Amino acid sequence: MVTFFEASLDTISVHHVGNPSINEMYSLSDGPLELTDEIIPNLLMQYFLKPFEKVNEVYHLTHSSGDLNLNEIHHFVSRIFEQKEKFHEASELIAKFLFKVTTHPNIKGGELYVVYFNKVQIEGNPLDAIGIFKSENKETYLKVYPDKGGFQVDYEENAININKLDKGVLIFDIEKENGYKVVVVDKNNNGQEAAVYWKDNFLQLKVRNDSFNQTSNTLGIYKNFVTQKLDDEFEMSKADKIDLLNRSMKYFKEKDTFDMDEFTGEVIGNPKAIESFKTFKSQYEQEFESPIADTFEISGSAVKKQARVYKSVLKLDKNFHIYIHGNKELIEKGFDDEKHMNYYKVYFKEEN
Question: Of 59, 99, 160, 242, which residue is 20 to 30 A from 310 by alpha carbon distance?
Fold first, then answer.
C-alpha cells in the first residue's frame, strides 16, 4: 500500500508536547531541524515510514459537523501544501492542537515531529505527504566500544528505538476535498479512553469507503458470519464452513465486480442463510457507520490480503490437518461405533 523507495525527507520540525491534565506544558522549537549528517535522514526515514509498509487501511479526515473546514489538521496541512514556506508555523499550530486534545491523564508526553516528504507512494502513486509522528516511550541502550586494547561499556538513557514508532500519520496531497488520503499507525493502548485520542480527537479519521475497503470489509463480514453466526441458526460441520469460505474466495478472485444478489445466490444458496447474511451485514454497517454498496469494483490487493486469513484447514485432534481447497463432496464425515470416534473419508484419483 505505502512504499518509500523513491521518497526523500524535505523538511522536519520537532516540538515537545506534554499532558496538561498532569500539569505538563509544551515546548516549541524556533525553526526546522537542520540535518547536516547524511546518516540521520536515512535513520529518520526508517523510523517514520517503515511501519506504514504493512498498513492497508486508508482513511480520510472528517468533522462531526460534516464541515471539513472545521477539522483543524485538515486546515493546517492544507496551509502547508498551498504555502510551503508556512511549514514551521503550521507545525507549531499542530503541536498546540495536540496539546489541547491531550486531556486523559494516561496519555504520555513526548516529542512531536512534523515532516514534509517528497515522492511517498500510496497505491502506486508518488505524492508529497505530510507526516505527523509522536514518540512517547524511551529506552536505555548499552554502547560497547574498543578502548586501549580492550573494551568499555557505556549507556544512554531516554533514547528512542527507531524500530518502534509509537504514533504516526501520513497525509497525502491528493483528494483534499474529501479529507485527503490518510494512513495511520498507533501502537500504544494505555486504556481505551487514552487510546482513541490520536485517531478520534486529534485527527478525526474515518475509513475511506473505496473499492479496497469495500472488498476487504465484505470478505471480513462474510468470514465472521460463517465462523460465528451460522452456528446459531444452522447445523454445519467445519468442512461445510470451510467450503463456504472457499467458494466466497473463489468468487472474489474470479470476478471483477461484486454484486450482492449474485454473490449470495452463487456462494450461499440457501434463502434463509442469505437473509441472515444480509441482516448481519446491515448490523455491521450501522454499528461502524460504514455502508457497503451492493455493487462495487473488486480490489485484487484486498482479496490477496484477506486470503491470508481465510482458513481452509480442518484440524483433527493433534494428529491430522486436512486442507480443503476444492469439491466438498469428496470428503465425508462419519462415526465409528467400535472405536467410538469420528472419522472423515476422503476421495481422490492420484497421490502426489
Answer: 59
Task: Determine the 3-state secondary structure of 351 from DSSP.
Answer: coil
Tell me the domain boundaries of the chain: 2-135+164-207, 211-346
Q: What is the pLDDT of residues 136-188, one digit of tens each?
A: 988 998 989 898 889 999 988 888 888 999 999 999 999 999 999 999 998 86
Distance (Å, whole) CA 188 – CA 280: 31
Residues 6+ apart with CB under 8 A from 323: 312, 313, 314
Separation of alpha carbons 310 and 298, rounded Å: 17
Q: Mean of the per-residue pLDDT values for the chain?
A: 88
Q: pLDDT tens, 75-85? A: 999 999 999 99
Given a contact cutoff of 8 angstroms between Cβ atoms, the answer to whether 296 and 257 are in contact is yes
pTM (2 d.p.): 0.69
Phi, psi of 68 (to 5 degrees): -65, -25
Check pLDDT > 80 for residue 308.
Answer: no
Q: Which neighbouring-strand residues pair with 320?
A: 316
The distance from CA 121 to its chain's CA centroid, rounded to whole angstroms, is: 16
Quickly list H helices, the chain: 39-49, 72-82, 87-101, 192-195, 211-224, 230-233, 238-254, 260-263, 271-288, 300-307
Is 167 within 8 Å of 185 (Cβ atoms)?
yes
180 three-state secondary structure: coil
Rg (CA), the chain: 26
Contact 159, 137 (CB under 8 A): no
Q: Under 8 Å CB-to-CB from 275, ≥6 apart: which residues?
A: none
C-alpha cell at 197: 485520542
Q: Are 114 and 41 in contact (CB under 8 A)?
A: no
DSSP conformation class of 199: I
- Single-letter residue type at 129: A
Nearest-10 crossing angle of helices 87-101, 72-82: 170
